[in-house]
Amino acid sequence: MRLDTRPCRVDDVLREVAELVDHKARDQGIALGIATAADFPETLADPELLKTCFLNLMINAVDAMPKGGVLSVEAGPARETGGDVLLVTVSDTGQGMTPDEIRTAFEPYFSTKETGLGLGLALTRKIVSDHGGSIALESAPGQGTRARIVLPLVAKPVTERPAEAVVS
User: What pLDDT is stored for residue 38 in this prediction?
Assistant: First the structure.
């Protein structure tokens, strides 16, 4: 997969994806909330592939809550061992996953859904990895699932301003 990186704001990508899943979420009695940092930085990323990544996670969350619940998305800059990063979490109050399901969740063709192909999380992990990031799942049966995505914070290149001429 080839990245088409350009300056973008991941918080804007998340809001766009949330709008896509909002109707289905409301129909199922799911409250969808997004919290992003006020000082969200612009970074270099492929916004179209990130949309695919976040859409997969949000659809999985909605599908895990057929009788309603809460879908929470949080994002902002953070400091990790390797430096400054963007941290995105997608959490639901759905049915949760067993430890075995968590271990195999990112394998192609693994699905807990009757109609799922099992490619969504495998593709999501590939997209995150191609951006130099990581993804991890935390879950327990009956307790919901939390996906934690860490993306490197690559600042938008700063254009140097020409030196001002001083006239005396």
Answer: 86
